Amino acid sequence: MIRRIVEATLTIFLSLFLGALGLACCALYAPETLEVLQIGANHAKDDILAILTGLGTEAGVNVWVRFLVQDEQLVFIGFVIAMRIGLSVLFALLAGMVGMAFGRGT
Question: From its phi and psi, is residue 88 left (phi > 0), alpha (psi between -120 and 50) or beta?
Fold first, then answer.
């Protein structure tokens, strides 16, 4: 049980760090791509607000959504999710290789 807690915690912190690193590398080496991602995040935020408005939510809710959901946050969340998926695949491959090395299989 402790192993699973450590793995989950490690994955969360590594994905946050690697997501920030990936975002910085994208900003330095592919600023056009980052700009496209920011424009897409802006459209996604507008779509979320349009859906909430269509559902009849109060203006107070929409204000909080506008305040809490920023374009930059959505882009960063995307990088973190991508890194988290990558780390999960990497850890699964490593666990399988370690299991095969010790004859346990997967």
Answer: alpha
